[in-house]
């Protein structure tokens, strides 16, 4: 069994401390900074076997070197980011498997936000760490890839089992919801709005969410639907044009 502990970092980042309860291995996904991760890990486990990075941006790797030095952790990342991820020890290619004890994480290459961005997906545990590719009710900005690549990447995630839990890199959900609701007002979004404010009032994360929930609410996963195309006056446009339009609107939102 995998247990996931959410640790808030920086302004609105989430790092995730993962514990394989049967083998007692401990890892952290995207340590934004040293101090909050160290505080949590020191008290609870007093070890850190692995550091997993979804991509090279500083708010996802900022804690790498200090944590590695203190805990002698192994740093895992994308083969494409071998030169950009601080302290990387093991580089994975698309579709390869990282064995976290008896739990397998499939590496899914998802270029778009950055060219080497990866997700860690466990089919047994029905969990995916999506970094800055897919957020709840949103997606990452397209910095290094093309819109085509980004939509292909999102479509890879869309195809995973619907009950898969998504753990993403930022708490952007409220702002993302406001954007989605400019164009759609379905029952799921209305319910979600209430749920999000309940969570945030209690200072609780709005993460994780399931893929099924996102399919009903996240407009960036709904670019292929006529109901969305119509709203944008793009009924005859293809998915990638709709996606680009939405992404541009969101960039200036
Ligand atoms: Zn990023
Ligand atoms: Fe980020």
Structural overview:
Helix 5 runs antiparallel to helix 6. This protein has a single domain, classed as 4-Layer Sandwich (Metallo-beta-lactamase, Chain A). It is of the alpha/beta class and 253 residues long. The protein has a six-stranded mixed β-sheet, with helices on one face. Fe (iii) ion binds next to helix 2. The site of fe (iii) ion (FE) has 6 residues, from helix 2.
Features:
binds fe (iii) ion, single chain, 34% helix, binds zinc ion, Metallo-beta-lactamase, Chain A
Write the layout of secondary structure elements.
Blueprint: E1 2-9, E2 13-20, E3 25-29, H1 34-44, E4 50-52, H2 58-61, H3 64-71, E5 74-78, E6 90-92, E7 97-100, E8 103-109, E9 118-122, E10 127-131, E11 134-135, E12 138-139, H4 147-158, E13 165-168, H5 173-183, H6 187-201, E14 209-210, H7 211-217, H8 226-231, H9 239-251
Parallel strand pairs: 3-4, 4-5, 5-6, 10-13
Antiparallel strand pairs: 1-2, 2-3, 7-8, 8-9, 9-10, 11-12, 13-14
Helix pairs in contact: 5-6
Residues 55, 57, 113, 132 line the site of zinc ion (ZN).
Q: Helix/strand/pairing class, anyone?
A: alpha/beta
Model regions low in confidence, pLDDT < 50 over at least 5 residues: none
How far apart lie the N and C ends?
40 Å
CATH class descriptor: Alpha Beta
Number of domains: 1
What order do the SSEs take from the amino end to the carboxyl end, as H and E? EEEHEHHEEEEEEEEHEHHEHHH
Q: How helical, in percent, are the residues?
A: 25-40%
Given the structure, what is the number of helices?
9
CATH superfamily: Ribonuclease Z/Hydroxyacylglutathione hydrolase-like
